[in-house]
Design goal:
Blueprint: H1 7-12, H2 33-41, H3 60-71
Length: 72
């Protein structure tokens, strides 16, 4: 297991190949490093994003959830 505590370490995750699990603090995908990772991951049809918290209306997290519900 590798951890990424700094911004530069987090960016290096994008250079990795194969399966990865990225855990993020509570939020609604509105900013920070996790948004950067989501932008890179979401186009991959084999990727999975799991929201374990509430996604308020009008947030990026809610838009992702809603789009997935329409597709699934």
């Amino acid at each position: 297991m590798q951890t990424a505590s700094s911004r530069d370490e987090s960016k290096r995750l994008n250079e990795m190949h194969g399966a990865r699990i990225i855990l993020s603090a509570s939020g609604m995908l509105t900013g920070g490093r996790v948004l950067h990772h989501a932008i890179r991951v979401l186009p991959n049809e084999n990727a999975t994003i799991v929201f374990v918290g509430y996604q308020a209306a009008g947030t990026t997290g809610r838009r992702v959830q809603t789009a997935n519900a329409k597709c699934g």
